[in-house]
Amino acid sequence: MSDPRLFPKLSDYQISCAKDVGEEMALSDGEVIFREAQGAADFFVVLEGQIKVVRNGDQGQEIFLAMHQPGEFTGTTDLLTGEAATATGFAVGPSRVVRVRAEHFRELLLACPEMRALLLPALTERRTTEYAIEMQQQKLAALGKLSAGLAHELNNPAAAAGRAGQNLTRLLSDVEGLCCGLLQCVMSQTNDNGVKLKTLCEIASGDPPHLDPLTRSDREQEVGEWLADHSVPDAWDAAASLVSAGVTLDKLEAVAKRVTAPYLTKVLTWIAKDVEMRLLCKELEQSTGRITDLVTAMKSYSYMDRAPTKAPTDLRSGLDTTLTILKHKLKKKNVNVNRNYGDLPPVPAFGGDLNQVWTNLIDNAIDAVPKGGHITIRSAKEGDQALVEIEDNGPGIPPELRAKIFEPFFTTKDVGQGTGLGLDTTYRIIRDHRGDIRFDSEPGHTKFRVYLPLN
Hints:
This protein is α+β, with helices and mostly antiparallel strands. The protein has helices at 12-21, 105-111, 113-187, 193-196, 200-204, 213-229, 235-244, 249-258, 261-302, 315-325, 327-332, 351-368, 422-432, and strands at 23-27, 32-34, 43-56, 62-68, 73-74, 88-100, 311-313, 336-341, 347-349, 374-382, 385-392, 436-442, 445-453. The strands form 3 sheets. Strands 1, 2, 3, 4, 5 and 6 form a 6-stranded antiparallel sheet that branches. A 5-stranded mixed sheet has the order 8-10-11-13-12, covered by helices on one side. It has a two-stranded antiparallel sheet with strand order 7-9. Strand 12 and strand 13 form a beta hairpin.
């Protein structure tokens, strides 16, 4: 999956040239061969095993840059300038390399034209890619700080508005009771209408039914015509509110039988306004609740206020949080998401980084599926690994593009709609966790499988 422009394979002749100038070294697991900001990095050719290259982030976290396989070369992009190493490289498992010291690197380039023709373009391409990654990380760091401040700013007014909505609902119930009691005292002096008014609050506070659009329209038509016949102001607006609160024509007829004509219009108007106020209170509570849910999801998604270290991570929670963040996009295309989570223990991981993985994969799936499409997310345990599958029913990845999708800056989206860093970032994060990502694709079926070690 490595981009050959960034990580070209050396020929046997080129490796022999490196051996002539350098020396072979056997490395144990975790042994460092160059360290960030500590002297110039030498040039290394990997013969056996793997060399992982990382860099320290602004918050002390480890940023994965590359995993070099046998036949590839490593060092840093400052080999030609002799400046201090910009990254740290170490062995993953027992490994063997050829080391060409920095002071002999120019000698290698002069002695081997084939090496020079391969190395210089690759080093230039790597430096360009590193610069783009640095810029992206700076933007993400700035976005993270902005998100943290925004989350705190939103959380307080949202919580206050939520409490206000709850208190308003409670006070409205108290006012209803007092109003009915007052009306009972006044009206019962001339007739028995006041005794019957005790049912009005129950009618106004009815539970909203679940109605399909056609049934709702029919009921609003019936109630609106009835209210208009009884001279209720704004009868059609009142009908919509009454039907939403579960008030039926039968309940209104019952009120009409209990309350005499001089009072009926005002009583019906009062019920309609009361119902409308209750609906507004409920809408206020739901809206503020939605804001609170989004703030909570954003904090969970970005792992705000948590140390940037690996920790036991619930993959299912991360997937659900990502779906919450992308809910607006799912709703816009009416995408159906099927979640099939198996019994899975926590995975040692950088939770915020993994959420970037889920975002990239799910976001791409949403873009791929047609309107009303389907996405299936599955998690399971396979041996000593956790498996997450994200499947969609989009048109699939064309065969000629499948070898390129993990390359930096490769994208099939229109200009301005993608950076081409999504799947490259995904691949790097998964490899940084010593995991693996695979995919199968054909028209109507694309499935990405992410494997992460449990230990």
